[in-house]
Each structure stands twice: as structure tokens, then as C-alpha cells.
Amino acid sequence: MANAEHLKIVALVSVGQHPKSGRARRAEQDARAVELGLNLCGEKVQVLHAGDVAEESLRSYAGMGLKQLRVLQQAAGADASVALGDYLSEHLPDIVLTGVRAESGESSGMTPYLLAEKLGWPLVTRIADIARIENGEAEILQALPRGQRRAIRVRLPFVASVDNAAAAPRQSAYGPGRRAELENLPWVETADEVRAAFEEAPARKRPKRLKMVKAKTAAERFKAATAKSQGGGGRVIKDQPPHEQAQAIFDLLLEEGVLR
Amino acid sequence: MSDIIRRDPRAEWIARNRLHPLHAEMAAPAAETRGPSGLIRKNPHAVGFIGPNGIKRIDRSGGSGAAVGIRRGARSAQQVELPLHTVENPDYYVVAVLDMVGGRLTSHDKDVLGQAHKLIRGGDGSGAVLAVVFGEHKEEAFDKAGVDRLLHLTGSEFDGYCPEQKVACLAEVEKQYQPRYWLFPDSINGGNELGCRLAARLGERPATQAWQVDRDTSVCRGGGGLSDITRDTPRLLLLAEECADPIDETRHQVLALELDRKPRIINRLQDCGQVAVDPNSVSLAEAEFILSAGNGIHDWDQFHQAAEALGATEGASRVAVDDGFMPRFRQVGATGTWVTARVYVAVGISGAVQHMQGIGQCDKVVAINTDAGCDMVKRADLSIIGDSQKVLAQLIELARDYREGGAENAA
């Protein structure tokens, strides 16, 4: 990570939403993206937001130790990914960091994909860390399900979305957050017409799927309701030497591909 | 055979005549007879049979008596013969790109296939569900999951992490088949990523986390799960889990389709393989492979060695935790952690109900136990009846040989 100071890194941030109270806050994944940027190139990381400069929760990103935060002025109904794409193709940074999914709005998680497609850059999804950057090539750790990690090498420039598995963001300091400069850039707005037709409502509770018992007779229904689950078709190995029994287990483990 | 019910006057005469030598045979199945007018007459005295202790038994489930063999045979034949759903010359396709975690259909995949049929059902023209599968698979039940057409793309180019290659192939599918809908499971196992990449490539605006979809409108979760967005159904959908019921009453054709031109692109993302992660640093709830210990373990050092050699996350039953052999956060079961491992090896665990609840979501369960009658053995896909200490010793040896052999092959 030592020689990343000269790189231009942009972290895109959005306005988050607390999952219980619904209050505006810094978004978890976006804050992790800022944290990763700060670790890579210190205060030089450019933090960018498309939206309203008056939004108070932007100050909590600034409170992570940023002198300045750039905001592309956009109205509520505008398509932020277009504005961000235009800005990035003008400024051409080396690395663009985003969260995986926004916490408010449509939260489709399409922004990094649209940006990568527009800029023609490779996209690395769900990264946990950037291990090193050497000779214009970055070695990235990608977060996989079940706590696994995958190493990926990619040439600069690229877009990366930062997963929840990345290092937790540092605490936001209130005073520096207030003192930081929010630079407002008026930017061309593109109205999001598809979104205008959406109807948004508070989330309904999803019905739980019931276990359907397709029994014809009362006796079958009774059996389905009361019987203990019987392991059907399980293979039982008995009265064999231990090495053959162990081999049977080992073959199953190999077949399932859990041995690495 | 004709269905006309005919009277057999001779049989009736024999049944009436108790002195006839054939009377016993003719009178036996007289619980239900046709009366002279053709109505069914039940004879309550002829129902049931005399049990071994001399008491009359009536079994209405039909599970006993002379007819048992025939009935059971007929029932099992019925189970095999689900009606075959055929689509000849489909007017359009609904493409479902499947995750296939571990080479098998996940429950999420099955929901997506169910949703695909729901979009076709009752619409104009005949549509077929085209499933796209990348790389090798171990699945045998595509027909019962609702796959009408299967596009199976194999080759070395699909090994490892290659989303760009896959998206190039899907773009080719778009050109060749022009599907009416694209369905992806919105999962972290690759479905979400492929769907979003394809949406960006095709310029479609996808519905993400869609959980209630029909041909006109779809309801999606948005705003970090706090809001529902109702919108027109787009062409490309990323479906949430349990979006629709899986197919379970029909069989499907699973006809293989081919892609005319297979694009080969240069991957800009170079996959350097998975990084070794300490299995015990992975939380128990999301560990993939768990070696779990219970009361039947006596040599705990050996157990830890086995977990290390196999690269498994350690788990324990309540007894082992209460006795102080394992920490509390390693406990599996209703009072501990509910695990989702793909492979769960239970060593010396007999399987209390609480423990069985905790492993309800595991795919493959292996039991090593001395008691062949315990609940864990009934649940397990593979059970080893024997001394766990000896089996574990052999397993450690096998795993070490495998590692060393692999290292030699690599070098």
C-alpha cells in the first residue's frame, strides 16, 4: 500500500438510512469505501457525492478526516449515475470506490456497473481490501460468501464496490466534520423518468412460506404432522475396518469440494 | 378392459351357499359389493382383519392386509410418473441464469425457475424456460425443477472467476434467442453480479430484490429493505429468495440447446485463486464445512488436529460445551448457532432435537457414531458406525497425504 500516494482515488458516497429509525446517516458500505481510500492515499482521497449539498449526513463523512468534499448539485428526481459518469470521464481517476448497494432510494446496486460500463473500465465487485498496487496493477481481495476471500489482479484504472467485509470505518469526529468544506459544483441534471413512475411504500412484511403437505388421506396428513423426519437413503457403513470408513468420508468431502 | 360392472351370478350363488367348497374364497372380499341396482353396498362385518392377538383390526389407510403389496406398488409408480410438460417449437424463451452453488440447484434457483413458469403460464403463445448453466454440474433433477431447455456452457474458459466471459456469452444468448424475460437469482453467489453486469451491458433497467412478480407489475425491495417499490415488470429481473413456489408437480423436457458462436474474450480480472482463510476465524453460522464434536469424543487433541488437517471449522454439541471442552460460541443447535454448512461432520453426536434443529439447513451430514440407532444416523447422508478415534486418525492421515500429494503435483 506504500506507493499509492500519487494515485487519484475517488470514493463515491451516498446518504444512508438507519435500518431501524430510518434516519439519514453515513452509509455503512460507502463509509468503508472512504476508509479504504483514506488508508490508500491519506487525505488526498477525493470524496464525491451527487445530490444536495445541504444534506447534514454528508458532514459525517467529512468527519472521518477530510478537508474537503465535492458535491455535484442534483435535484431529488435526477439520475445520479449519469452525472457521476460524466464527472468521472472528465476527471479520469485511477480508482473509483463505491458501496455495493445504497441504503436509500431504489438501492438496486447498479451504480458501479453503470459507471464501469460507461468508462469502459473493469469492475471488481465486493472487495474486502486492496492488498497492494504495483506497476499499475492492483492486487485485490474479494469477499466471497461464507467468509472466504479471493485474490484478483487487475490493471488500473478500475471501479470497485466495497463489501461489508472491508475494514470498519473510523469514527466520525463532529467538529472537523462541521469545519470541512463542502464544495458545490452545479452539474447538468438528467431526469430519471423510469423512476418517476415507481410507487414507493413502506415495506410490507413478506408472507412466510408454509410447508405444503400434499397428502391425499387423513392418515397421511396425520403422519406428516407428527412423524419425526426419517433420513431416507442415507448410507450406513458398519463392520468395516476404520481406514475404509475414513476413505468413504474422505471421498464424500472430495466430491463436495470442501477440501482445499 | 371395459369399465362396465358385470354381475357374476355363479359367484353370488357360491357366496350365498356356506356349504360350497369355494365359499371361503368367494366371500372374502365382500366388504364392498354392488347391489342389484348397481349401488355400492358396504358390509361392516367384512371390513378389517383379525390381528395376531385375535382382536379385529380396521386399517383405513390401507397399509395392511392382502392388498398391501399391490397398492404400494401402484403408489410408488405414481410418484415416479409426474406428468411431462412439453413445449414444441416455443414462441419465446424465458431465460433463467442459475447459480449452481457446488454444482447443484439451490433452493433459490428452483424459486427462480418456478417464477419463470409463472410468467409463462396463462400468457399468449407457448414459452419455454431456458436455463443457462456455466461450468460442470452434478445436478440430475433438472426435469423436476422445471427446465424445458438447457444451455450448458462448459470449457476451461469458465473455470474460476470469469464474470466478463459469462456476460459475453449471455450477450450472445440475447442475440440468438431474444428472450422475453431474463431472470437471475439476486444472491451473493454470483447471480446478482451477473445480472447487474448484463443489465449494464444491454442497457436494461433491472428490478432488483423483486419478490412479487407477474407480467404487468413487480414489487421490489428498495431503500435498504425499508420500502417496497411497485413498478412495471422490466425485461431483466433479479429475484429475491422465495419469490415464487418451485415446480413440483410436473416433469420437463430438459432439451439441450447450443450457442452458435461462443465468444472468447480476454479477462481483465485475473483470478489468482482463493486465499487461505483460517477456518476458525469464519463465523460458525456461515462456515461451509464444520467438524462438530459431541459426547463421544475422548481425545480432544486429536479432534483439533483433525479439524486443522481437513480445514474445517470446529463446532460442538451442548454436552461438549457444558463439560468445558469447547467454548460457548462453538455450540451448534437451538441454544447455540444455527449453521448453514454444506457439509457437516458430526463426531460422537447422537442428535438431540435441539441439535437437529440447528443443522436443519445443512446439505450433507456425515455421522460418526458407535450407536447405529441414534437420530443423527437417521438424518445423516453417510453414517459410519465405529470408533470415532480410529476413524479420525485415518482421516487425518488421508488429509495429510492429500495435501502433500497436491503440493507435489503443483510443484
From TrEMBL, chain A:
<keyword id="KW-0249">Electron transport</keyword>
<comment type="similarity">
    <text>Belongs to the ETF beta-subunit/FixA family.</text>
</comment>
<feature type="domain" description="Electron transfer flavoprotein alpha/beta-subunit N-terminal">
    <location>
        <begin position="15"/>
        <end position="196"/>
    </location>
</feature>
<dbReference type="InterPro" id="IPR014730">
    <property type="entry name" value="ETF_a/b_N"/>
</dbReference>
<protein>
    <submittedName>
        <fullName>Electron transfer flavoprotein subunit beta</fullName>
    </submittedName>
</protein>
<dbReference type="Pfam" id="PF01012">
    <property type="entry name" value="ETF"/>
</dbReference>
<keyword id="KW-0813">Transport</keyword>
<dbReference type="InterPro" id="IPR014729">
    <property type="entry name" value="Rossmann-like_a/b/a_fold"/>
</dbReference>
<dbReference type="InterPro" id="IPR012255">
    <property type="entry name" value="ETF_b"/>
</dbReference>
<dbReference type="GO" id="GO:0009055">
    <property type="term" value="F:electron transfer activity"/>
</dbReference>
UniProtKB/TrEMBL annotation, chain B:
<dbReference type="GO" id="GO:0033539">
    <property type="term" value="P:fatty acid beta-oxidation using acyl-CoA dehydrogenase"/>
</dbReference>
<dbReference type="GO" id="GO:0009055">
    <property type="term" value="F:electron transfer activity"/>
</dbReference>
<dbReference type="Pfam" id="PF01012">
    <property type="entry name" value="ETF"/>
</dbReference>
<dbReference type="InterPro" id="IPR029035">
    <property type="entry name" value="DHS-like_NAD/FAD-binding_dom"/>
</dbReference>
<dbReference type="Pfam" id="PF00766">
    <property type="entry name" value="ETF_alpha"/>
</dbReference>
<protein>
    <submittedName>
        <fullName>Electron transfer flavoprotein subunit alpha</fullName>
    </submittedName>
</protein>
<dbReference type="InterPro" id="IPR014729">
    <property type="entry name" value="Rossmann-like_a/b/a_fold"/>
</dbReference>
<dbReference type="InterPro" id="IPR014730">
    <property type="entry name" value="ETF_a/b_N"/>
</dbReference>
<keyword id="KW-0813">Transport</keyword>
<feature type="domain" description="Electron transfer flavoprotein alpha/beta-subunit N-terminal">
    <location>
        <begin position="94"/>
        <end position="269"/>
    </location>
</feature>
<dbReference type="InterPro" id="IPR001308">
    <property type="entry name" value="ETF_a/FixB"/>
</dbReference>
<comment type="similarity">
    <text>Belongs to the ETF alpha-subunit/FixB family.</text>
</comment>
<dbReference type="GO" id="GO:0050660">
    <property type="term" value="F:flavin adenine dinucleotide binding"/>
</dbReference>
<keyword id="KW-0249">Electron transport</keyword>
<dbReference type="InterPro" id="IPR014731">
    <property type="entry name" value="ETF_asu_C"/>
</dbReference>
